[in-house]
Amino acid sequence: LSVMTARGNGTAMTHFILLGLTNRMDLQGVLFGLFLLIYTMTLIGNLGMMALIRSDPHLHTPMYFFLSTLAFIDVCYSSVVTPRLLVDFFIVDKSISYIGCMAQMAFFLLHGTAECLLLATMAYDRFVAICHPFLYQTLMSRETCVQLVAVAYTLSMANSAVQTSNVFRLPFCGPNYINHYFCDIPPLLQLSTGDTQMASIVVFLVSAVVVLSSFLLTLTSYTLIVSAICHIPSATGRHKAFSTCASHLAVVTIFYGTVIFMYIRPGSGQASNRDKMVSVFYAIIIPLLNPIIYTLRNRDFQRALGKALRRAKSQCSKQRQKAAPT
């Protein structure tokens, strides 16, 4: 039973209970192992990418600066949701405090919005690199890159504050079971005992402004990029340019597609079991895919990784030689 406290003429919740990803007991162990593997690989991939970019001077360029920032966001983004999901597979008490639920939503929206805006920024970076190569160093200076990331985080904090306060100003005086594995907007709107029509409109409008504006900027950038690539006379040059952008476009398609489905489609304020499956893609899978997609066919990363492995191997050999008896 929920623990409640008096507030005015009614009662208000002090905590919620997460129903989790599934209630099938036979799947708990399998899903725990799967998501633990995904989370571990997410941390290794993104933290490794950040370390590699930081350690190799050849990767100190605008594109890799944005990739390093994306890796940081993915670590934070995934860590807001996945550890709690893993714990809930094996505990009976899946309750989360009112303040804890609010904090989880706020941080999830913060990093989710930052990822959305950063993907658009990265599309603009590729547009400048391909369509205006001679102005690239001027237009995408270090100061400009830092400012773009700062603006993305500022807008993300504003969106997080607006969306979180929009949801938690509503009354929650009835059942406290959240049909989800984390505190997301649609299941909480469904749980509120007040009139959620205006709150749903705010969610739709704010999400549409943030997501669709980022998506349109990305789409415009890639339209101009494709047009510029088609005018490259060399087939090798066209292939290299398309290869550079293909990985980014794959991530963008998955991320924006699932986010638009969750927050901007008609009836997005109503939670369902299908929504939980969709949210796995943008909350858990995308942070894993980013380092894989961006590094798998990237020759700069392959060279930097090869250098790092050779350096580590050389250091291990020296340590063994020092430790060997004379």
From TrEMBL:
It comes from the Eukaryota. The chain crosses the membrane at residues 30-52, 64-82, 102-124, 201-229, 241-264, 276-296. PROSITE patterns: G_PROTEIN_RECEP_F1_1, G_PROTEIN_RECEP_F1_2. Residues 45-294 form the G-protein coupled receptors family 1 profile domain. SUPFAM superfamilies: Family A G protein-coupled receptor-like (SSF81321). One of its GO terms (cellular component) is plasma membrane. It is a multi-pass membrane protein. Keywords: Cell membrane, G-protein coupled receptor, Membrane, Olfaction, Receptor, Sensory transduction, Transducer, Transmembrane, Transmembrane helix. It is found in: Cell membrane; Membrane. One of its GO terms (molecular function) is olfactory receptor activity. Belongs to the G-protein coupled receptor 1 family. This is Olfactory receptor.
